[in-house]
Design goal:
By secondary structure, the protein is mostly helical. The chain has eight helices and no strands. The mean pLDDT is about 80.
């Protein structure tokens, strides 16, 4: 990814034209989809090196991803019982473990999974819906965690991308 960023640096600089609205929209899409991967983090990383207010980028990305993740929550809320009864084997065991973890320490589990890059947030979001977490509580916890993740990725782009380009002698 770093080599592609360096090679396509002019394209990445052009991402600055999409700005905060572009980051917001792609974050909504990235937060809402499980099946189709959206390169949300790569865009936030690249925009971190292109936009002036990196802190605002992290907040916007966190808000967008949280709004997108409401669809995962609503899926669990509406179909949690059907999901639990429709899966079998190892997947069933994993779902039951996540449900137990969410039942015991739901808020902490949800926050930690939202704050780091990992694939386990989606089952936790489904479980939060199935366990009927308050939607306000879910939104606030996810926004806090996903904003931390968004800020981390944006600042990694700001410092990492700029540092890498400076080391290669590219003026930034």
């Amino acid at each position: 990814m770093a080599a592609a960023v360096i090679y396509y640096r002019h394209v990445i600089e052009g991402l600055g034209g999409y700005g905060y609205l572009g980051a917001f929209i792609i974050s909504i899409l990235g937060g809402a989809t499980i099946i189709i991967p959206i390169p949300m983090l790569a865009v936030v990383f690249a925009l971190g090196g292109a936009l002036k207010y990196t802190w605002l980028l992290g907040i916007v990305a966190g808000l967008g991803e949280t709004l997108g993740a409401l669809s995962i929550y609503m899926t669990g809320y509406g179909g949690g019982v059907a999901i639990a009864k429709g899966i079998h084997g190892k997947l069933q065991v994993a779902y039951e473990r996540m449900m137990n973890q969410m039942h015991k320490r739901g808020s902490l589990t949800l926050f930690l999974l939202a704050a780091v890059i990992n694939p386990f947030f989606y089952p936790a979001a489904l479980a939060a819906g199935a366990l009927r977490f308050s939607i306000r509580k879910y939104f606030v916890i996810c926004w806090a965690g996903k904003t931390i993740k968004g800020l981390t990725v944006a600042y990694a782009g700001y410092y990492g991308l700029r540092g890498l380009l400076r080391a290669l002698g590219v003026p930034v």
